[in-house]
Write a structure and sequence with these properties.
Blueprint: H1 8-14, H2 16-24, E1 28-29, E2 34-35, H3 38-41, H4 44-49, E3 52-57, H5 59-76, E4 80-84, H6 85-88, E5 99-105, H7 111-122, E6 126-131, H8 137-141, E7 144-147, H9 160-179, H10 185-206, H11 209-219, E8 224-229, H12 234-248, E9 251-256, E10 273-278, H13 284-295, E11 300-306, H14 311-315, E12 318-322, H15 331-348
Bound molecules: 5-amino-5-deoxy-1-O-phosphono-D-mannitol.
5-amino-5-deoxy-1-O-phosphono-D-mannitol is lined by residues 58-61, 105-107, 110, 113, 156-158, 246, 359, 362-363.
C-alpha cells in the first residue's frame, strides 16, 4: 500500500509530479491556450464583479491560501484577504454579497472551515470550495468548487495536497486575469506552457533527495530552526516550518526574511540552522543581504536556490537547487526540498512520520 516507500509521507511527496499533472489535466489546454474550469466558468460574472476574495482555511491549506493571495493580486488584480477559519468565524467580519469566499481544505471536513462557510453563506457571499476529498462536507456545502486531484493523502503531514491546492488556485488566478484583461494573451500562453513543465521540474527537485538526506543528518539534533522567505515564498517558509515541527517536534518558525531584524535575529547563533528560500527571481538581492546578516551572526545557512546559483552558494553552508521557473510558480518547486528535509530529520529521530503525536488527519472538532 505504501508502494515500496517506507512511509506514506515519502510516497506522497514523490507522487507530486503526477498529482499536479492530474490536477491540471482536462482543465489546462495548452495547445489551445485555454483554461476550462466549470466551477469558475459557470459563475464567471460573480468572479468578475467580486469586490474582493476572502480565503479561509487552516494549517497547510491556509499557507496555500497565502500563496494564492500573492498570485491573485499580482495576476488578476483582485483584492484578497486570507484568514484562519477559526479567527474569521468568531470575529464578526464584514462580509457582503459581492464577496467571494474561497474555502481551502484537503479533507473537506475541517470544523472551523465549515463554520466559516456557513457564516459567509448566511451573509450572502458566494462560496467556492477547493477540496481534495470528493463528496466531502465542505465540497457539498459550497456553491461551487474545484477539486484538487491529489488522490488520497494518508500522511498526517500534508504534502501533495498543498502543491495541488496551489495548482488549482494558480489556474483560477490565470483564468480570472485573462477574463479581466489583466494579462496579455501572449503572457497567458507563456504561463500555461510554463505550468505544463512544472511536474517535470518537481521531478528534478526530487532528485536532490540524497543530498537533502545528508543535510538532514547534520541538523537533526538542532533544538530550533528558522525558515525565511519573501514574496511568493514567504508562505512556503511558514509551510516548511510547520512541516518540521509537526513531524520531528523540533521548534521551528517561519518568517518573512525582512522581519528578521525586528526580533528573530536575536535568536541567531552558531547553533541555529536557518533555511532561506533564495531563488533567483523575486527580491533575490534583498534575500542575499538577509543571508549576509545571518552569516555575520554565525547562523548556519541552508539556501534553497535556483539551479546554477553562485552568490548564495558562496555564503551558505549548504545549498539545495531547484529548477528555474516563472516567479509566481516557484512555490511549487521550493516546497519540495523543505518537505524532504523535514521527512529525513523526523525519520532519523525515530519519530512516527505518518502519524505524529497529538495530531489527526482531519480536525472535525473545533
Ligand atoms: O483538511 P484540511 O486541509 O482542512 O486540514 C487543515 C489542517 O488541519 C492541515 O493542513 C494540518 O495543518 C496538516 N497537519 C498540515 O500538515
Amino acid at each position: 500500500e505504501k508502494g515500496g516507500y517506507d512511509h506514506f509521507m515519502l510516497k506522497e511527496i514523490y507522487e507530486q509530479p503526477q498529482a499536479i499533472r492530474d490536477t491540471f489535466r482536462g482543465r489546462m489546454l495548452v495547445d489551445q491556450g485555454l483554461i476550462k474550469m466549470a466551477g469558475i466558468d459557470d459563475h464567471i460574472d460573480k468572479f468578475l464583479n467580486a469586490r474582493r476574495i476572502l480565503i479561509v482555511a487552516c494549517g497547510t491549506s491556509w499557507h496555500a491560501g497565502l500563496v494564492a493571495e500573492y498570485i491573485f493580486e499580482d495576476l488578476a488584480r483582485i483584492p484578497v484577504e486570507v484568514e484562519y477559519a477559526s479567527e474569521f468565524r468568531y470575529r464578526n467580519p464584514v462580509i457582503d454579497k459581492d464577496d467571494i469566499l474561497i474555502a481551502i481544505s484537503q479533507s473537506g471536513e475541517t470544523a472551523d472551515t465549515m463554520a466559516a462557510i456557513k457564516m459567509a453563506k448566511d451573509k450572502g457571499a458566494f462560496v467556492f470550495g477547493v477540496c481534495n476529498v470528493v463528496g466531502s462536507s465542505i465540497s457539498r456545502e459550497a456553491h461551487a468548487g474545484a477539486y484538487t486531484h491529489a488522490g488520497p493523502e494518508i500522511g498526517v503531514a500534508s504534502t501533495k495536497a498543498f502543491t495541488t491546492q496551489i495548482t488549482v488556485l494558480t489556474l483560477i488566478a490565470l483564468q480570472l486575469a485573462k477574463r479581466k484583461g489583466k494579462i496579455s494573451t501572449s503572457d497567458f500562453h507563456r504561463y500555461l506552457q510554463e505550468l505544463d513543465t512544472i511536474p517535470d521540474k518537481v521531478e528534478k527537485a526530487l532528485n536532490s533527495n540524497d543530498h537533502i538526506e545528508k543535510i538532514a543528518a547534520i541538523y537533526k539534533d538542532a533544538p530550533n530552526c528558522l525558515y525565511l522567505g519573501r514574496g511568493f515564498n514567504f508562505p512556503v517558509a511558514l509551510e516548511g516550518a510547520l512541516k518540521l515541527k509537526e513531524i520531528s517536534y523540533i521548534h521551528a518558525e517561519g518568517y518573512p526574511a525582512a522581519e528578521m531584524k525586528h526580533g528573530p535575529i536575536a535568536l541567531i547563533d552558531e547553533q541555529m540552522p536557518v533555511v532561506v528560500i533564495a531563488t533567483r527571481k523575486g527580491h533575490y538581492e534583498k534575500v542575499v543581504s538577509n543571508i549576509q546578516e545571518i552569516k555575520s551572526r554565525s547562523g548556519k545557512i541552508i539556501g534553497i536556490v535556483t539551479e546554477g546559483d553562485v552568490d548564495v552558494r558562496d555564503l551558505a553552508d549548504h545549498v539545495i537547487e531547484v529548477p528555474d521557473t516563472i516567479e509566481f510558480m516557484t512555490p511549487l518547486l521550493t516546497t519540495i526540498p523543505l518537505q524532504l528535509l523535514s521527512y529525513h530529520i523526523a525519520v532519523m529521530l525515530g519519530k512516527n512520520v505518518d502519524q505524529p503525536r497529538n495530531l489527526a488527519k482531519s480536525v472535525t472538532v473545533e
